[in-house]
Amino acid sequence: MSRFESVDQLVAYRTKLQDAHNKLQRRIVVCAGTGCVACGALEVFDELKKQLADNKYEVALELQDCLHSKNGGAHHVSISGCHGFCQMGPLVHILPDDVLYMQPKVKDVTDIVNALLGKAPVNEKLLFKDPATKQAQKGRNDITFYAKQERIALKNCGYVDPESLDDYLAHGGFSGLLKAMSMEGKAVVDSVTKSGLRGRGGAGFATGRKWKTAMDAGSPYILCNGDEGDPGAFMDRSIMEGDPFKVLEGMTIGAYAMKANRGYLYVRKEYPLAVKRLQKAIDKLTEAGLLGDNILNTGFNFTVSISRGGGAFVCGESTALMRSIEGKIGEPRAKYTRSAVKGLYEQPTVLNNVETWACVPLILEHGHEWFASKGTKTSTGTKAFSLVGKVKNTGLVEVEMGTTLREIIFDIGGGIIGDKPFKAVQTGGPSGGCIPESLLDVPVDFDTLTANGSMMGSGGMIVMDSRNCMVDIAKYFVHFLLEESCGKCTPCREGLRQLHAMVDSVTKGEATMETLDNIERVCRAMKLGSLCSLGMDAPNPVLSTLKFFREEWIQHIQEKKCVAGVCRNLITFHIIEEKCTGCMICARHCPQTAIHGEKGKPYVIDTAICDKCGICYTVCPEKFDAIEIL
Q1: Over the chain, what is the mean pLDDT?
Q2: How many CA atoms lie within 13 A of 543 on its CB side?
Q3: What is the rounded distance in angstroms from the CA atom of residue 420 to the CA atom of residue 258?
Q4: How far apart (Å, rounded) are the C-alpha atoms in residues 391 and 412?
Q5: pLDDT by residue (tens digit) across 43-62?
Q6: pLDDT recorded at residue 69
Q7: Are 9 and 162 in contact (CB under 8 A)?
Q8: pTM (two decimals)
Q9: Rounded CA gap, 622 and 626, in Å?
Q10: Which of 58, 218, 302, 552 has the most CB atoms around its CB within 10 Å?
Q11: What CA–CA distances, in Å, run from 419 to 31, 135, 395, 462, 465?
Q12: pLDDT at 77 over 60
């Protein structure tokens, strides 16, 4: 690609691409996020290209090819970032027809191509089936998973080829930067401030206020936090993989506004596809003159590099992240001075996460009033969540702030797997908390979640049903944080160690009521004395489960009972003789061969051999329900 020497040149080229894009007969978009690639999306993509070419279709892989199309349009075949409905991947989307094929294999490509050629109807076996009506739903506009979503940060994911600058431009890319460059830097910061945008990385600090502090302190470093270490969270990864140009455009807008000339993207090593696509985007933008020296011949200079993290959870904390970029051990420091004043290399630094930077171009393009009109008064705009756990529809969702947990879990997520009772949802990752059924109708925003003992965090949302033990859940997160603590401060290092030992004793039936008092005492000490927010928030899973599920903790201690059937020391599996038909399914699956009997007659479990893995309980057909947990 040639270098753009002026704003006019960029706008003229983009207009040509948009014209070509509008003339396309069809777009065939194959999801190539990490999950879909693992499920064979690229093989499907290759087969689609081959079969379309074999059928003499005018196939374009680059939009540039469409500029010279002879027939007034071509079929553009491309990859895209994550569509969001990850459990149904790989996904193939036909536009403008809006036909979304789910989980197609290479052998199904012929059906897709025949439907495109008009030789056969759309194969309904490859469409989404509504769980309630069992009816096939053709496209994204019909599927309930997408119906209640409002996408800003994820707007391009599923539509734009993340490896094509042309495709990004054809979808209006760099409108935000061009608008910003027509304004004074201070006006850009004011616009972000008035939009009400708060950081999507966890703390929810006002973005515009942070920018103003850094701008007043002098030319800052621009950092993007793509570390994302929360279990079950993959929002930032999906945006980096699916829309890298928008993240870089957001950072460039910030650099222009604050007169910065150096930026870093901090991405964990476990995200190789994100690193690859971000680096491609940086190279293409540099070649096009949209990064580097004298951008669009305006005298504005901004260079971005990728810094790869080793995958330490603590490096998601701002000061630890900056030390890691400096080549030092990634440990937090006391924040006597804000990073906006003294951060990376002791210089003013603005750190925002991926989702925050991805919102910035659209705020500039559409105006701060547009963004502020969405969401709630104190939490404007939208928020992306990774919806996982015991929910029917798992994947990536983005909703307006203020949407209730019930709408997210039951309307978008489709409810609980097997229609079992909902028990809790963990928001905010390991530093967040568990919210019970009684609070399902609270609006999801920064302040409401915090007021209820949890937090927004980066956006992980883990749904639990009656088979989840809340003490065991608390132990899991405490163990995770114990393994990830950097060990620099005593309250976090020793507090987590003691906390884990005490919670573990509860799950084993070895604790007393005095243990509960000691658990709460340690939690308070950690909150008061830990050096960084990760240590201060580490007790949240314990405290929230104690607050909302205290009876379950007491049952473990006083009755030596785990009602969820998870804590092995406190349960015994038993076959109900009257219900057992002797179908042998449990016996065939038992890894310890602890289940015996005669076919057609009730079976029994030898408790001396049983290791309480629970497989028998899981595989016993629902119509029999012959295994109980004592």
Answers
A1: 93
A2: 22
A3: 52
A4: 10
A5: 999 999 999 888 877 777 77
A6: 65
A7: no
A8: 0.93
A9: 8
A10: 302
A11: 30, 19, 19, 16, 9
A12: yes
One-letter amino acid for residue 181 of the chain: M
Q: What is the pLDDT of residues 301-327, one digit of tens each?
A: 999 999 999 989 999 999 999 999 999
Most confident region among 143-147, 186-190, 448-452 by mean pLDDT: 186-190
Write the DSSP symbol of residue 86. Answer: G
Question: What's the one-letter identity of residue 317?
Answer: E
Instruction: Supply the DSSP string of 341-395, one letter for each residue.
Output: TS-GGGS-EEEEEHHHHHHHHHHHHH-HHHHHTSB-SSSBSEEEEEEEESBSS-E
- Residue 8 vs residues 12, 13, 247: alpha-carbon distances, Å: 6, 9, 23
Of 170, 159, 171, 178, nearest in space to 67 by CA: 170
**Token representation of residue 305:** 């590099």
Backbone angles phi, psi at 49, to 5 degrees: -60, -45
Report d(CA 416, CA 428) in Å as an integer.
20
Question: Are the C-beta atoms of residues 491 and 529 closer than 8 Å to each other?
Answer: yes
Question: Which residue in this structure is represented by tokens 């132990």?
Answer: 475
- Mind listing the pLDDT tens digit for each residue in 495-540? 999 999 999 999 999 999 999 999 999 999 999 999 998 999 999 9
Report helix angle 354-366 to 235-242, nearest 10: 60
Residue 583: CB atoms within 10 Å: 15
